[in-house]
DNA sequence: CGGCTGGTTGAGTCGTGTCAACTGCGGTGG
DNA sequence: CCACCGCAGTTGACACGACTCAACCAGCCG
Protein backbone atom coordinates (compact mmCIF):
# COMPACT_ATOMS: atom_id res chain seq x y z
CA UNK A 1 0.00 0.00 0.00
CA UNK A 2 2.80 2.39 0.94
CA UNK A 3 4.38 1.72 -2.42
CA UNK A 4 1.17 2.47 -4.25
CA UNK A 5 0.82 5.76 -2.41
CA UNK A 6 4.40 6.70 -3.20
CA UNK A 7 3.63 6.06 -6.85
CA UNK A 8 0.90 8.66 -6.86
CA UNK A 9 3.30 11.23 -5.45
CA UNK A 10 5.78 10.84 -8.27
CA UNK A 11 3.21 11.29 -11.05
CA UNK A 12 4.60 13.30 -13.94
CA UNK A 13 2.98 14.85 -17.02
CA UNK A 14 4.46 13.91 -20.36
CA UNK A 15 3.61 15.18 -23.83
CA UNK A 16 3.06 13.46 -27.16
CA UNK A 17 6.28 12.31 -28.80
CA UNK A 18 8.29 12.74 -25.63
CA UNK A 19 11.07 10.20 -25.15
CA UNK A 20 10.99 8.64 -21.69
CA UNK A 21 14.37 7.09 -22.26
CA UNK A 22 16.71 6.22 -25.12
CA UNK A 23 18.21 2.91 -26.13
CA UNK A 24 21.44 2.20 -24.23
CA UNK A 25 20.56 4.64 -21.45
CA UNK A 26 21.33 3.58 -17.90
CA UNK A 27 18.57 1.54 -16.28
CA UNK A 28 17.47 3.27 -13.10
CA UNK A 29 13.71 3.32 -13.01
CA UNK A 30 10.44 1.88 -14.23
CA UNK A 31 7.12 3.60 -14.92
CA UNK A 32 3.45 2.95 -14.56
CA UNK A 33 1.41 4.60 -17.32
CA UNK A 34 -1.49 6.46 -15.78
CA UNK A 35 -2.81 8.26 -18.84
CA UNK A 36 -1.92 8.15 -22.50
CA UNK A 37 -0.27 5.55 -24.73
CA UNK A 38 3.43 4.78 -25.02
CA UNK A 39 5.58 2.41 -27.04
CA UNK A 40 9.01 0.84 -26.77
CA UNK A 41 11.13 0.63 -29.90
CA UNK A 42 14.43 -0.27 -31.46
CA UNK A 43 16.08 1.77 -34.19
CA UNK A 44 17.90 -0.26 -36.81
CA UNK A 45 20.98 0.54 -38.83
CA UNK A 46 19.07 0.75 -42.10
CA UNK A 47 16.94 3.54 -40.66
CA UNK A 48 13.82 1.50 -40.02
CA UNK A 49 12.28 1.04 -36.60
CA UNK A 50 10.75 -1.92 -34.85
CA UNK A 51 8.13 -1.09 -32.26
CA UNK A 52 8.24 -3.75 -29.58
CA UNK A 53 5.30 -3.02 -27.39
CA UNK A 54 2.43 -0.60 -27.06
CA UNK A 55 1.63 0.41 -23.48
CA UNK A 56 -1.87 1.38 -22.41
CA UNK A 57 -2.96 3.07 -19.17
CA UNK A 58 -2.22 0.75 -16.25
CA UNK A 59 0.76 -0.96 -17.89
CA UNK A 60 4.21 -1.04 -16.36
CA UNK A 61 7.03 0.16 -18.61
CA UNK A 62 10.62 -0.97 -18.36
CA UNK A 63 10.38 -4.37 -16.71
CA UNK A 64 11.99 -5.81 -19.79
CA UNK A 65 15.25 -4.11 -18.84
CA UNK A 66 15.21 -5.42 -15.27
CA UNK A 67 18.61 -6.84 -14.46
CA UNK A 68 20.35 -5.17 -17.38
CA UNK A 69 22.66 -2.19 -16.97
CA UNK A 70 21.65 -0.65 -20.31
CA UNK A 71 18.21 -0.15 -21.81
CA UNK A 72 17.63 -2.56 -24.66
CA UNK A 73 14.94 -0.36 -26.16
CA UNK A 74 13.81 3.25 -26.09
CA UNK A 75 10.38 4.35 -24.91
CA UNK A 76 8.33 7.22 -26.31
CA UNK A 77 4.87 8.65 -25.68
CA UNK A 78 2.29 8.39 -28.45
CA UNK A 79 0.03 11.10 -27.04
CA UNK A 80 -0.03 13.33 -23.97
CA UNK A 81 -0.25 11.47 -20.69
CA UNK A 82 0.84 10.94 -17.12
CA UNK A 83 3.43 8.43 -15.87
CA UNK A 84 4.46 7.40 -12.35
CA UNK A 85 8.14 6.44 -12.15
CA UNK A 86 9.54 4.18 -9.44
CA UNK A 87 13.03 2.93 -8.73
CA UNK A 88 14.91 -0.33 -8.50
CA UNK A 89 15.18 0.25 -4.79
CA UNK A 90 11.43 0.44 -4.37
CA UNK A 91 11.07 -2.82 -6.25
CA UNK A 92 13.69 -4.50 -4.09
CA UNK A 93 11.91 -3.31 -0.97
CA UNK A 94 8.81 -4.96 -2.30
CA UNK A 95 10.66 -8.24 -2.84
CA UNK A 96 11.85 -8.12 0.74
CA UNK A 97 8.50 -7.39 2.30
CA UNK A 98 6.01 -9.39 0.31
CA UNK A 99 6.63 -12.67 -1.49
CA UNK A 100 3.02 -12.54 -2.64
CA UNK A 101 3.41 -9.17 -4.35
CA UNK A 102 6.72 -10.36 -5.75
CA UNK A 103 5.01 -13.26 -7.44
CA UNK A 104 2.34 -10.83 -8.65
CA UNK A 105 4.88 -8.44 -10.14
CA UNK A 106 6.56 -11.29 -11.94
CA UNK A 107 3.21 -12.49 -13.23
CA UNK A 108 2.60 -9.01 -14.65
CA UNK A 109 5.98 -8.93 -16.36
CA UNK A 110 5.43 -12.41 -17.75
CA UNK A 111 2.05 -11.38 -19.15
CA UNK A 112 3.60 -8.44 -20.95
CA UNK A 113 6.17 -10.71 -22.47
CA UNK A 114 3.44 -13.12 -23.50
CA UNK A 115 2.07 -10.43 -25.81
CA UNK A 116 5.47 -10.05 -27.43
CA UNK A 117 5.75 -13.78 -27.83
CA UNK A 118 2.34 -13.91 -29.41
CA UNK A 119 3.39 -11.26 -31.89
CA UNK A 120 6.48 -13.27 -32.74
CA UNK A 121 4.16 -16.11 -33.68
CA UNK A 122 1.91 -14.14 -35.95
CA UNK A 123 4.66 -12.05 -37.48
CA UNK A 124 6.51 -15.25 -38.29
CA UNK A 125 3.63 -17.27 -39.63
CA UNK A 126 0.65 -15.13 -40.59
CA UNK A 127 -0.25 -12.94 -43.57
CA UNK A 128 -0.20 -9.17 -43.41
CA UNK A 129 -3.97 -9.03 -43.09
CA UNK A 130 -3.98 -11.47 -40.20
CA UNK A 131 -1.19 -9.60 -38.48
CA UNK A 132 -3.05 -6.33 -38.59
CA UNK A 133 -6.32 -7.94 -37.55
CA UNK A 134 -4.63 -9.75 -34.69
CA UNK A 135 -2.97 -6.61 -33.38
CA UNK A 136 -6.16 -4.58 -33.61
CA UNK A 137 -8.09 -7.27 -31.84
CA UNK A 138 -5.53 -7.47 -29.06
CA UNK A 139 -5.72 -3.73 -28.51
CA UNK A 140 -9.50 -4.03 -28.48
CA UNK A 141 -9.44 -6.68 -25.75
CA UNK A 142 -6.92 -4.76 -23.66
CA UNK A 143 -8.84 -1.50 -23.98
CA UNK A 144 -12.08 -3.24 -23.15
CA UNK A 145 -10.54 -4.37 -19.87
CA UNK A 146 -9.72 -0.85 -18.76
CA UNK A 147 -13.15 0.34 -19.87
CA UNK A 148 -11.94 2.26 -22.90
CA UNK A 149 -14.33 0.62 -25.38
CA UNK A 150 -17.76 2.22 -25.65
CA UNK A 151 -20.45 0.53 -27.69
CA UNK A 152 -17.78 -1.43 -29.51
CA UNK A 153 -15.95 1.74 -30.56
CA UNK A 154 -12.45 2.66 -29.45
CA UNK A 155 -9.72 5.03 -30.53
CA UNK A 156 -6.34 4.04 -31.94
CA UNK A 157 -3.83 6.92 -31.82
CA UNK A 158 -1.19 5.08 -33.86
CA UNK A 159 -0.29 6.27 -37.35
CA UNK A 160 -0.14 3.70 -40.14
CA UNK A 161 3.61 4.22 -40.21
CA UNK A 162 3.74 3.19 -36.54
CA UNK A 163 1.43 0.24 -37.14
CA UNK A 164 3.85 -0.88 -39.83
CA UNK A 165 6.72 -0.59 -37.38
CA UNK A 166 4.78 -2.74 -34.90
CA UNK A 167 3.99 -5.46 -37.41
CA UNK A 168 7.09 -5.46 -39.58
CA UNK A 169 5.16 -4.11 -42.59
CA UNK A 170 5.38 -0.99 -44.72
CA UNK A 171 3.00 1.90 -44.06
CA UNK A 172 1.66 1.57 -47.59
CA UNK A 173 0.77 -2.05 -47.02
CA UNK A 174 -0.98 -1.21 -43.76
CA UNK A 175 -3.20 1.14 -45.72
CA UNK A 176 -4.02 -1.60 -48.21
CA UNK A 177 -4.80 -4.09 -45.45
CA UNK A 178 -7.15 -1.58 -43.82
CA UNK A 179 -9.10 -1.24 -47.04
CA UNK A 180 -9.24 -5.02 -47.37
CA UNK A 181 -10.55 -5.34 -43.81
CA UNK A 182 -13.13 -2.66 -44.54
CA UNK A 183 -14.21 -4.33 -47.81
CA UNK A 184 -14.67 -7.58 -45.93
CA UNK A 185 -16.78 -5.80 -43.34
CA UNK A 186 -14.46 -6.63 -40.48
CA UNK A 187 -13.07 -3.25 -39.46
CA UNK A 188 -14.70 0.15 -39.87
CA UNK A 189 -12.64 3.24 -39.30
CA UNK A 190 -13.13 6.96 -39.33
CA UNK A 191 -10.28 9.14 -38.20
CA UNK A 192 -8.82 7.37 -35.17
CA UNK A 193 -12.06 5.66 -34.19
CA UNK A 194 -12.34 1.94 -34.85
CA UNK A 195 -15.34 -0.36 -34.81
CA UNK A 196 -15.63 -4.09 -35.40
CA UNK A 197 -19.06 -5.02 -36.84
CA UNK A 198 -18.40 -8.71 -36.12
CA UNK A 199 -15.64 -9.17 -33.51
CA UNK A 200 -15.98 -12.94 -33.61
CA UNK A 201 -15.35 -13.11 -37.34
CA UNK A 202 -12.33 -10.85 -36.98
CA UNK A 203 -10.88 -13.01 -34.22
CA UNK A 204 -11.38 -16.17 -36.28
CA UNK A 205 -9.79 -14.62 -39.34
CA UNK A 206 -6.74 -13.63 -37.28
CA UNK A 207 -6.61 -17.06 -35.62
CA UNK A 208 -6.81 -15.18 -32.37
CA UNK A 209 -6.56 -17.25 -29.20
CA UNK A 210 -6.97 -15.22 -26.04
CA UNK A 211 -5.15 -17.64 -23.72
CA UNK A 212 -2.14 -15.32 -23.58
CA UNK A 213 -4.32 -12.48 -22.30
CA UNK A 214 -5.83 -14.56 -19.52
CA UNK A 215 -5.60 -12.60 -16.29
CA UNK A 216 -6.52 -15.24 -13.72
CA UNK A 217 -3.79 -16.55 -11.47
CA UNK A 218 -3.35 -20.24 -10.60
CA UNK A 219 -4.61 -21.29 -7.19
CA UNK A 220 -1.10 -21.65 -5.79
CA UNK A 221 -0.84 -17.86 -5.89
CA UNK A 222 -3.80 -17.41 -3.61
CA UNK A 223 -2.48 -19.75 -0.95
CA UNK A 224 0.80 -17.87 -1.11
CA UNK A 225 -1.00 -14.59 -0.63
CA UNK A 226 -2.66 -16.00 2.47
CA UNK A 227 0.58 -17.36 3.86
CA UNK A 228 2.04 -13.84 3.93
CA UNK A 229 -0.04 -11.00 5.38
CA UNK A 230 -0.41 -8.69 2.38
CA UNK A 231 -2.84 -7.84 -0.36
CA UNK A 232 -3.27 -10.32 -3.14
CA UNK A 233 -3.39 -9.01 -6.70
CA UNK B 1 21.98 -24.21 -1.78
CA UNK B 2 19.31 -26.57 -0.51
CA UNK B 3 17.28 -25.85 -3.60
CA UNK B 4 20.20 -26.56 -5.88
CA UNK B 5 20.80 -29.89 -4.18
CA UNK B 6 17.16 -30.79 -4.49
CA UNK B 7 17.42 -30.09 -8.19
CA UNK B 8 20.13 -32.69 -8.63
CA UNK B 9 17.93 -35.27 -6.97
CA UNK B 10 15.10 -34.83 -9.39
CA UNK B 11 17.27 -35.21 -12.52
CA UNK B 12 15.48 -37.17 -15.23
CA UNK B 13 16.67 -38.66 -18.50
CA UNK B 14 14.73 -37.66 -21.60
CA UNK B 15 15.10 -38.85 -25.16
CA UNK B 16 15.17 -37.05 -28.50
CA UNK B 17 11.75 -35.87 -29.63
CA UNK B 18 10.19 -36.41 -26.21
CA UNK B 19 7.51 -33.86 -25.32
CA UNK B 20 8.09 -32.37 -21.86
CA UNK B 21 4.65 -30.80 -21.94
CA UNK B 22 1.95 -29.88 -24.43
CA UNK B 23 0.34 -26.56 -25.16
CA UNK B 24 -2.60 -25.90 -22.80
CA UNK B 25 -1.34 -28.39 -20.24
CA UNK B 26 -1.60 -27.39 -16.61
CA UNK B 27 1.35 -25.38 -15.35
CA UNK B 28 2.89 -27.17 -12.39
CA UNK B 29 6.63 -27.21 -12.80
CA UNK B 30 9.69 -25.74 -14.45
CA UNK B 31 12.87 -27.44 -15.63
CA UNK B 32 16.57 -26.80 -15.79
CA UNK B 33 18.18 -28.38 -18.82
CA UNK B 34 21.27 -30.28 -17.74
CA UNK B 35 22.15 -32.00 -20.98
CA UNK B 36 20.78 -31.81 -24.51
CA UNK B 37 18.81 -29.20 -26.42
CA UNK B 38 15.11 -28.43 -26.16
CA UNK B 39 12.71 -26.03 -27.82
CA UNK B 40 9.37 -24.45 -27.03
CA UNK B 41 6.82 -24.21 -29.82
CA UNK B 42 3.33 -23.28 -30.89
CA UNK B 43 1.31 -25.26 -33.40
CA UNK B 44 -0.86 -23.17 -35.70
CA UNK B 45 -4.18 -23.94 -37.29
CA UNK B 46 -2.75 -24.08 -40.79
CA UNK B 47 -0.44 -26.90 -39.72
CA UNK B 48 2.74 -24.87 -39.47
CA UNK B 49 4.73 -24.47 -36.29
CA UNK B 50 6.50 -21.55 -34.74
CA UNK B 51 9.45 -22.43 -32.55
CA UNK B 52 9.72 -19.82 -29.83
CA UNK B 53 12.94 -20.59 -28.09
CA UNK B 54 15.82 -23.01 -28.21
CA UNK B 55 17.12 -24.09 -24.81
CA UNK B 56 20.74 -25.09 -24.27
CA UNK B 57 22.25 -26.83 -21.24
CA UNK B 58 21.95 -24.56 -18.20
CA UNK B 59 18.77 -22.83 -19.38
CA UNK B 60 15.56 -22.79 -17.37
CA UNK B 61 12.45 -23.94 -19.23
CA UNK B 62 8.95 -22.81 -18.46
CA UNK B 63 9.41 -19.44 -16.78
CA UNK B 64 7.39 -17.94 -19.59
CA UNK B 65 4.30 -19.67 -18.23
CA UNK B 66 4.83 -18.44 -14.67
CA UNK B 67 1.58 -17.02 -13.36
CA UNK B 68 -0.56 -18.66 -16.04
CA UNK B 69 -2.79 -21.62 -15.37
CA UNK B 70 -2.25 -23.10 -18.85
CA UNK B 71 0.94 -23.58 -20.84
CA UNK B 72 1.12 -21.11 -23.69
CA UNK B 73 3.58 -23.28 -25.59
CA UNK B 74 4.69 -26.88 -25.75
CA UNK B 75 8.26 -28.01 -25.07
CA UNK B 76 10.09 -30.84 -26.80
CA UNK B 77 13.60 -32.28 -26.69
CA UNK B 78 15.77 -31.99 -29.79
CA UNK B 79 18.19 -34.70 -28.75
CA UNK B 80 18.68 -36.99 -25.77
CA UNK B 81 19.34 -35.18 -22.51
CA UNK B 82 18.76 -34.72 -18.82
CA UNK B 83 16.38 -32.26 -17.18
CA UNK B 84 15.85 -31.29 -13.52
CA UNK B 85 12.22 -30.35 -12.81
CA UNK B 86 11.23 -28.13 -9.89
CA UNK B 87 7.86 -26.93 -8.67
CA UNK B 88 6.03 -23.67 -8.13
CA UNK B 89 6.29 -24.31 -4.42
CA UNK B 90 10.06 -24.49 -4.53
CA UNK B 91 10.17 -21.18 -6.38
CA UNK B 92 7.85 -19.57 -3.84
CA UNK B 93 10.04 -20.82 -1.01
CA UNK B 94 12.92 -19.12 -2.73
CA UNK B 95 11.03 -15.84 -2.94
CA UNK B 96 10.33 -16.03 0.76
CA UNK B 97 13.86 -16.78 1.83
CA UNK B 98 16.04 -14.72 -0.44
CA UNK B 99 15.18 -11.43 -2.09
CA UNK B 100 18.60 -11.53 -3.72
CA UNK B 101 17.97 -14.87 -5.41
CA UNK B 102 14.50 -13.66 -6.33
CA UNK B 103 16.00 -10.73 -8.20
CA UNK B 104 18.47 -13.12 -9.80
CA UNK B 105 15.76 -15.50 -10.97
CA UNK B 106 13.84 -12.61 -12.48
CA UNK B 107 16.98 -11.40 -14.18
CA UNK B 108 17.39 -14.85 -15.74
CA UNK B 109 13.80 -14.89 -16.96
CA UNK B 110 14.16 -11.38 -18.36
CA UNK B 111 17.31 -12.38 -20.23
CA UNK B 112 15.52 -15.28 -21.84
CA UNK B 113 12.77 -12.97 -22.96
CA UNK B 114 15.35 -10.55 -24.31
CA UNK B 115 16.38 -13.20 -26.83
CA UNK B 116 12.78 -13.56 -27.96
CA UNK B 117 12.44 -9.81 -28.26
CA UNK B 118 15.61 -9.64 -30.30
CA UNK B 119 14.21 -12.24 -32.65
CA UNK B 120 11.04 -10.23 -33.02
CA UNK B 121 13.22 -7.36 -34.22
CA UNK B 122 15.10 -9.29 -36.82
CA UNK B 123 12.17 -11.37 -37.99
CA UNK B 124 10.25 -8.13 -38.48
CA UNK B 125 12.92 -6.08 -40.16
CA UNK B 126 15.75 -8.24 -41.54
CA UNK B 127 16.18 -10.34 -44.68
CA UNK B 128 16.14 -14.13 -44.60
CA UNK B 129 19.92 -14.25 -44.82
CA UNK B 130 20.34 -11.89 -41.90
CA UNK B 131 17.81 -13.79 -39.84
CA UNK B 132 19.64 -17.05 -40.29
CA UNK B 133 23.02 -15.44 -39.69
CA UNK B 134 21.75 -13.70 -36.57
CA UNK B 135 20.30 -16.86 -35.11
CA UNK B 136 23.42 -18.89 -35.84
CA UNK B 137 25.60 -16.22 -34.30
CA UNK B 138 23.45 -16.07 -31.19
CA UNK B 139 23.70 -19.82 -30.73
CA UNK B 140 27.44 -19.53 -31.23
CA UNK B 141 27.78 -16.93 -28.47
CA UNK B 142 25.57 -18.89 -26.09
CA UNK B 143 27.41 -22.14 -26.75
CA UNK B 144 30.74 -20.42 -26.35
CA UNK B 145 29.68 -19.37 -22.85
CA UNK B 146 29.02 -22.89 -21.71
CA UNK B 147 32.26 -24.07 -23.32
CA UNK B 148 30.64 -25.92 -26.19
CA UNK B 149 32.66 -24.23 -28.94
CA UNK B 150 36.01 -25.85 -29.71
CA UNK B 151 38.40 -24.09 -32.08
CA UNK B 152 35.52 -22.11 -33.47
CA UNK B 153 33.54 -25.24 -34.29
CA UNK B 154 30.22 -26.20 -32.74
CA UNK B 155 27.36 -28.53 -33.46
CA UNK B 156 23.83 -27.54 -34.36
CA UNK B 157 21.37 -30.42 -33.94
CA UNK B 158 18.45 -28.54 -35.55
CA UNK B 159 17.06 -29.68 -38.90
CA UNK B 160 16.52 -27.05 -41.60
CA UNK B 161 12.81 -27.59 -41.13
CA UNK B 162 13.20 -26.61 -37.48
CA UNK B 163 15.40 -23.64 -38.34
CA UNK B 164 12.64 -22.48 -40.65
CA UNK B 165 10.13 -22.82 -37.82
CA UNK B 166 12.39 -20.72 -35.60
CA UNK B 167 12.84 -17.95 -38.14
CA UNK B 168 9.48 -17.91 -39.86
CA UNK B 169 10.95 -19.20 -43.13
CA UNK B 170 10.43 -22.29 -45.28
CA UNK B 171 12.86 -25.17 -45.00
CA UNK B 172 13.68 -24.78 -48.68
CA UNK B 173 14.69 -21.18 -48.18
CA UNK B 174 16.87 -22.09 -45.20
CA UNK B 175 18.76 -24.40 -47.49
CA UNK B 176 19.26 -21.60 -50.03
CA UNK B 177 20.43 -19.18 -47.35
CA UNK B 178 22.96 -21.73 -46.13
CA UNK B 179 24.43 -21.99 -49.60
CA UNK B 180 24.54 -18.19 -49.87
CA UNK B 181 26.34 -17.94 -46.53
CA UNK B 182 28.78 -20.60 -47.68
CA UNK B 183 29.40 -18.87 -51.02
CA UNK B 184 30.13 -15.65 -49.17
CA UNK B 185 32.59 -17.48 -46.93
CA UNK B 186 30.67 -16.71 -43.76
CA UNK B 187 29.44 -20.11 -42.61
CA UNK B 188 30.99 -23.50 -43.30
CA UNK B 189 29.06 -26.60 -42.52
CA UNK B 190 29.51 -30.33 -42.67
CA UNK B 191 26.87 -32.52 -41.19
CA UNK B 192 25.82 -30.80 -37.96
CA UNK B 193 29.18 -29.12 -37.42
CA UNK B 194 29.36 -25.37 -38.05
CA UNK B 195 32.35 -23.08 -38.39
CA UNK B 196 32.56 -19.32 -38.95
CA UNK B 197 35.75 -18.38 -40.86
CA UNK B 198 35.20 -14.71 -39.98
CA UNK B 199 32.82 -14.29 -37.00
CA UNK B 200 33.16 -10.50 -37.06
CA UNK B 201 32.01 -10.27 -40.66
CA UNK B 202 29.06 -12.54 -39.92
CA UNK B 203 28.03 -10.42 -36.95
CA UNK B 204 28.24 -7.22 -39.00
CA UNK B 205 26.21 -8.72 -41.82
CA UNK B 206 23.50 -9.76 -39.36
CA UNK B 207 23.61 -6.35 -37.64
CA UNK B 208 24.26 -8.30 -34.48
CA UNK B 209 24.47 -6.29 -31.27
CA UNK B 210 25.31 -8.39 -28.25
CA UNK B 211 23.84 -6.02 -25.64
CA UNK B 212 20.88 -8.35 -25.13
CA UNK B 213 23.20 -11.22 -24.23
CA UNK B 214 25.10 -9.19 -21.65
CA UNK B 215 25.32 -11.23 -18.44
CA UNK B 216 26.58 -8.66 -15.97
CA UNK B 217 24.18 -7.38 -13.33
CA UNK B 218 23.87 -3.71 -12.35
CA UNK B 219 25.60 -2.72 -9.11
CA UNK B 220 22.31 -2.40 -7.22
CA UNK B 221 22.02 -6.17 -7.38
CA UNK B 222 25.26 -6.68 -5.53
CA UNK B 223 24.34 -4.41 -2.66
CA UNK B 224 21.05 -6.25 -2.42
CA UNK B 225 22.87 -9.53 -2.27
CA UNK B 226 24.94 -8.24 0.64
CA UNK B 227 21.92 -6.89 2.50
CA UNK B 228 20.48 -10.40 2.69
CA UNK B 229 22.73 -13.30 3.74
CA UNK B 230 22.66 -15.48 0.63
CA UNK B 231 24.67 -16.29 -2.44
CA UNK B 232 24.71 -13.74 -5.22
CA UNK B 233 24.30 -14.99 -8.76
C1' DC C 1 -3.60 30.70 -48.75
C1' DG C 2 0.18 27.46 -48.68
C1' DG C 3 2.79 23.94 -46.77
C1' DC C 4 3.04 19.81 -44.10
C1' DT C 5 1.78 15.44 -42.47
C1' DG C 6 -0.80 11.21 -42.99
C1' DG C 7 -3.26 8.38 -45.96
C1' DT C 8 -4.59 6.27 -50.66
C1' DT C 9 -3.75 4.25 -55.07
C1' DG C 10 -1.14 2.44 -59.05
C1' DA C 11 2.90 0.22 -61.48
C1' DG C 12 6.73 -2.46 -61.30
C1' DT C 13 10.25 -5.19 -58.65
C1' DC C 14 11.99 -8.54 -55.65
C1' DG C 15 12.06 -11.77 -51.94
C1' DT C 16 10.14 -15.78 -50.25
C1' DG C 17 6.82 -19.66 -50.67
C1' DT C 18 5.24 -23.75 -53.04
C1' DC C 19 5.63 -27.75 -55.66
C1' DA C 20 8.27 -31.14 -57.54
C1' DA C 21 12.14 -33.82 -58.88
C1' DC C 22 16.38 -35.49 -57.45
C1' DT C 23 20.44 -36.70 -54.36
C1' DG C 24 22.86 -38.69 -50.58
C1' DC C 25 22.99 -40.77 -46.45
C1' DG C 26 21.75 -43.96 -42.51
C1' DG C 27 19.15 -47.54 -40.80
C1' DT C 28 16.74 -51.82 -41.35
C1' DG C 29 15.67 -56.27 -42.72
C1' DG C 30 16.36 -60.06 -45.71
C1' DC D 1 26.58 -58.07 -46.79
C1' DC D 2 23.60 -55.91 -49.68
C1' DA D 3 19.05 -54.08 -51.19
C1' DC D 4 15.78 -51.17 -49.85
C1' DC D 5 13.41 -47.51 -47.70
C1' DG D 6 12.85 -43.08 -45.81
C1' DC D 7 14.25 -38.77 -44.32
C1' DA D 8 16.99 -34.43 -44.79
C1' DG D 9 18.79 -31.54 -47.89
C1' DT D 10 19.42 -29.44 -52.64
C1' DT D 11 17.97 -27.39 -56.87
C1' DG D 12 14.82 -25.49 -60.41
C1' DA D 13 10.47 -23.35 -62.14
C1' DC D 14 6.91 -20.68 -61.07
C1' DA D 15 3.51 -17.99 -58.23
C1' DC D 16 2.40 -14.48 -55.14
C1' DG D 17 2.73 -11.35 -51.32
C1' DA D 18 4.85 -7.36 -49.74
C1' DC D 19 8.08 -3.45 -50.80
C1' DT D 20 9.42 0.69 -53.25
C1' DC D 21 8.69 4.65 -55.72
C1' DA D 22 5.72 8.02 -57.17
C1' DA D 23 1.71 10.67 -57.83
C1' DC D 24 -2.17 12.25 -55.71
C1' DC D 25 -5.58 13.57 -52.07
C1' DA D 26 -7.42 15.34 -47.59
C1' DG D 27 -7.08 17.67 -43.31
C1' DC D 28 -4.77 20.73 -40.27
C1' DC D 29 -2.07 24.47 -38.76
C1' DG D 30 0.51 28.51 -39.33
TrEMBL record, chains A, B:
InterPro entries reported in the protein's UniProt record: cNMP-bd_dom, cNMP-bd_dom_sf, HTH_CRP, RmlC-like_jellyroll, WH-like_DNA-bd_sf, WH_DNA-bd_sf
Magnesium among keywords: no
Keyword annotations of the record: DNA-binding, Transcription, Transcription regulation
GO molecular-function terms, A-Z: DNA binding
PROSITE patterns: HTH_CRP_2
Source species, domain of life: Bacteria
BP GO terms, sorted: regulation of DNA-templated transcription
Presence of keyword Transcription: yes
All residue ranges annotated as the HTH crp-type domain in the record: 126-200
Protein's name in the database: Crp/Fnr family transcriptional regulator
Protein source organism: Billgrantia endophytica
Amino acid sequence: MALLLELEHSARKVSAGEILWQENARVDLFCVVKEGWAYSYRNLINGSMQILKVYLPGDVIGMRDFGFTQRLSGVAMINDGVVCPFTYQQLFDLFRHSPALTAGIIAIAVRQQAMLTERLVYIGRHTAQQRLAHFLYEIYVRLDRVGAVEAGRFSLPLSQEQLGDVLGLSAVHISRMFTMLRDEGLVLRERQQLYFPDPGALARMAEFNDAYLDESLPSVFHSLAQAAPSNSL
